[in-house]
Amino acid sequence: MKIYHVPSLQDNNSFLIVDESTKEGAVVDPIEPEKVLEAANSHGVNLKLVLTTHHHGMHAGGNEKIKQLVAGIRVYGGSIDNVKGCTDKVENEDRISLGADINILSLHTPCHTKGHISYYVTGKEGEQPAVFTGDTLFIAGCGKFFEGTAEEMHESLSVTLASLPKQTRVYCGHEYAVKNLQFAMTIEPDNLRIQQKLTWAKNQNQAGQPTTPSTIEEEMETNPFMRVHLPKIQEKVGCKSPIEALRELRKLKDKWMMGYL
Questions:
Q1: How far apart are CA 244 and CA 261, in angstroms?
Q2: Which of 48, 82, 104, 111 has its CA at 20 to 30 Å from residue 189's CA atom?
Q3: Contact indicator for 117, 78 with CB cutoff of 8 Å
Q4: Which residues contact 198 (CB under 8 A, 6 or more apart)?
Q5: Closest CA to 129 of 117, 137, 120, 138
Q6: What is the rounded radius of gyration, in angstroms, for the C-alpha atoms of the chain?
Q7: Rama region for 106: left / alpha / beta (φ>0; ψ in -120 to 50; rest)
């Protein structure tokens, strides 16, 4: 299994997943289809599937165009998310096959949108798995609670995604790592792992390189939204439970980001 990053627009991420045995491919959130096709052609890939994480235009907006450009391509999306161009609706734990060796498990991860889907992808035995988290889980962050609750986001992050193997690579929908890690530093200023990753992420940005992938293990070490079970995080935000802490963290992050607008 090969995964290629396809940068799109200002900070969007699309990803090309390739089954090496057959050269069949899937693309996650192809907001700029021409760039995706250029990447696919450069690697000799036959595009078969679109995996849409959620209905927002920055993620599903290229679906109709890619259907025009690639005859017979299947477009997957959450069954309750009203994804533009969707040909195949998926429920939680539905399975999709790609080529000879790739299996894709759909995971319902609601809150940012009601029907948001993350895609957990495995290849041959021994290959490192991957999860494509759209706008639910970012590097050191999470999406805004546009259509859901703190309870739902906690379930999505700390139950559904945190239960994946720790080595699972995390590919998220936007390049927000530096600002997310800067905010994480305000919550845990003594966390050495956050300090180290922030320095690394700044270097990646300066070099024009992506900060994806992370891993589930790294997120559990550096992402405050996945660390709300810790008493020190709860105390920092003046809360006494993980869900209350998550709700307060999201409010604090929204206020903190105002300084960048």
A1: 26
A2: 111
A3: yes
A4: 178, 181, 182, 184, 185
A5: 120
A6: 18
A7: beta
Task: From 169, 208, 216, 214, select the one nearest 196 (Cα to Cα).
Answer: 214
Quickly count: other Cβ atoms within 10 Å of residue 11's Cβ.
Answer: 11
| AA letter at 183 | F
**CATH number of the CATH domain containing 78:** 3.60.15.10
SS3 142: strand
Contacts of the segment 90-94: beta carbons below 8 A, 24+ positions apart? 90/117
Q: Which residues of the chain have pLDDT under 50?
A: 261
Query: Measured between alpha carbons, how far is 106 from 95 in angstroms, rounded to an integer?
Result: 6
Give the pLDDT confidence of 88-118 residue by residue, as tens digits.
999 999 999 999 999 999 999 999 999 999 9
The C-alpha angle with vertex 244 and arms to 12 and 226, in degrees rounded to 5, equals 45
Reported pTM: 0.97
Question: Do 167 and 217 contact (CB within 8 A), yes or no?
Answer: yes
Q: Is the dihedral of CA 40, 45, 50, 52 positive or negative?
A: negative
What burial class does residue 127 get, using C-beta atoms within 10 Å of its C-beta: 0-12 exposed, 13-18 middle, 19+ buried?
Answer: middle
Task: State which residues form the domain around 188.
Answer: 2-260
Residue bearing tokens 């999306």:
77
